[in-house]
Amino acid sequence: MKSIKFAAALVATLIAGSVFAQTNTPNIDKRQEVQQKRIAKGMESGALTAKESANLEKREAKIEADKQVAKADGVVTKAERAKLEHEENRASKKIRNKKHNANVAG
């Protein structure tokens, strides 16, 4: 459970830090925020197991890391933005699938 809280705190810190980045990615930032809330609600409701939540948090952390790499040169290109949006789409589907599968926290 500590690792889940740590992962959530890490992702939240990375997201907060991205606000001060030179490159602007408001749509991606907003989606990350919304997806973090979806994961948290899934944990609270028991729709996500600890393992599922940890897996989803890792996916979100990878997207954040990819976003930081894209911003590193000061410009997020169309291709980089498309890749990030594709990753967000896949993560969103994973969250939905994990929240609605037969596994429940117990």
Structure notes:
By secondary structure, the chain is mainly α. The chain has one domain (about 1-100). Helix content is about 75%, strand content about 0%. It has 4 helices and no strands. Helix 1 (about 1-20) packs parallel to helix 3, helix 2 (about 25-45) packs antiparallel against helix 3 and helix 2 (about 25-45) runs parallel beside helix 4. The two termini are about 15 Å apart. This is DUF4148 domain-containing protein. It comes from Undibacterium pigrum. Keywords: Signal.
Name the features.
about 110 residues, mainly alpha
**Rg calc:** 14 Å
Mean pLDDT: 88
Helix amount, in percent? Answer: over 70%
Please write the string of helix (H) and strand (E) elements.
HHHH
Q: Identify low-pLDDT runs.
A: none
Give the termini distance in whole angstroms. 13 Å
- For the record, the count of structural domains works out to 1
Class computed from helices, strands and strand pairing: mainly alpha
Shape: elongated
Query: Main sheet?
Result: none
Strand content: under 5%
Would you report the number of β strands? 0
* Number of alpha- plus pi-helical segments: 4
Signal peptide: 1-21
Keywords: Signal
Biased composition (Basic and acidic residues): 80-91
Biased composition (Basic residues): 92-106
